[in-house]
Amino acid sequence: MGMFDPIKGFGVTFSTMFKKTVTEQYPEDFRATAPRYHGRHQLNRHPDGLEKCVGCELCAWACPADAIFVEGGDNTEDERYSPGERYGKDYQINYLRCIGCGLCIEACPTRSLTMVNFYELADDDRQRLIYTKEDLLAPLLPGMEQPPHPMRLGDNEQDYYTKGPQLAREALPASGQSGQSKEAGQ
């Protein structure tokens, strides 16, 4: 150990003492996150408003922290929530346990579960940190009806997935079509 090593260490301290401090005004000056930031989970929908979640419970099995609870239910002709035979009847994510690893996203076969950029998940009430299906479900597009509704994009599940995206684009409101036609023309 050299005689001047403590002085070198204090040199870092002295060099930062006279620099201007940077203070972020967090609640007032909200900075956007990186586009690929993984924050709160979201249950996605098909373009016609039906839920993508089929209640397979693979996300719950993949979660190492046991933070996800899924209970599947059967669709009927009167009440249809997803294009398949089943849907996620009860869906909960406990953010007191969630470690944000993203394994649930990788396990989802229908890409119904994703993570959005929202990161403000702190709360002083433990019960509000258990997000239910209603909290996680993506909002409907403007002009879409509330589920449950009949499967509009095809006669069966196979038609829904093969012909569905084209029929869904045709069924979108006029404002959605004008934006897509501009992108297609470029």
From TrEMBL:
It comes from the Bacteria. One of its GO terms (cellular component) is plasma membrane. GO terms for biological process: aerobic respiration. GO terms for molecular function: 4 iron, 4 sulfur cluster binding; iron ion binding; NADH dehydrogenase (quinone) (non-electrogenic) activity; quinone binding. It is an enzyme of class 7 (translocase). It is found in: Cell membrane. [4Fe-4S] cluster 1 binds at C53, C56, C59, C108. Keywords: 4Fe-4S, Cell membrane, Iron, Iron-sulfur, Membrane, Metal-binding, NAD, Quinone, Repeat, Translocase, Ubiquinone. It comes from Tamaricihabitans halophyticus. NDH-1 shuttles electrons from NADH, via FMN and iron-sulfur (Fe-S) centers, to quinones in the respiratory chain. The immediate electron acceptor for the enzyme in this species is believed to be ubiquinone. Couples the redox reaction to proton translocation (for every two electrons transferred, four hydrogen ions are translocated across the cytoplasmic membrane), and thus conserves the redox energy in a proton gradient. Its EC number is 7.1.1.-. Residues 43-73, 89-118 form the 4Fe-4S ferredoxin-type domain. This is NADH-quinone oxidoreductase subunit I. Pfam families: Fer4_7. It is a peripheral membrane protein. Residues 175-186 have a biased composition (Polar residues).
